[in-house]
Amino acid sequence: MEHVLDHVGIAVRSIDDALAFYLNVLNGTLEDQYTSDAPGVEVHVAVVRTSDKMIELLAPTNKNSPMARFIKQRGKGVHHIAYRVNDLDKAILDARKKGVRFLEDTLRTNIRGRRLIYINPASTDGTLIELCSYANINNSDD
User: What is the pTM of this model?
Assistant: First the structure.
């Protein structure tokens, strides 16, 4: 199964403060901005497209959110790398057969329709990796 780089998630304290760099220096375009108050997510998101890839700026909605804990423990910066797959269920099954463990409670569909799950960083030598698929678009690179 093909895994295509979909986006990079960047932990920031403030979307407004971070946006200037991505829009003015990297010449990105703000594609979407939303807030997810779902328990265990609790994040403000700004989706920025650069010439060829997407970046998600992720800011905590409150001081107890998972993103706030991440920033407190590891600081601002890269939070995760996301790979798009054609069939998320098959990708999960294939990875499990190879011994990959997932953060099971992260399997969900976000408010923009992206299905996703995070791989346990113990299986990736420390990097948080998201696998995702989109129900409303063709996931192939054709």
Answer: 0.89
- Contact predicate 80/128, CB 8 Å: yes
% of the chain at pLDDT higher than 90: 88
CATH label of the domain that carries residue 76: 3.10.180.10
Query: Using H for helix, E for strand and C for coil, what is the string for 66-81?
Result: HHHHHHHHHCCEEEEE
Residue 139 is assigned to a structural domain of this protein? no
Q: How far apart are CA 60 and CA 13, in angstroms?
A: 7
Structure-block tokens of residue 90: 């098959």
Written as six digits, the tokens of 57 are 């700026």
Low-confidence ranges of the chain (pLDDT < 50): 138-142
pLDDT for the residue 1: 85
CA torsion 115→102→100→120, rounded to 10°?
120
Q: How many domains does the chain have?
A: 1
Q: What is the pLDDT of residue 137?
A: 54
CA distance 50 to 45: 16
Tokens representing 13? 């304290």
pLDDT at res. 141: 37
| Cα separation, 140 vs 98, whole angstroms | 24
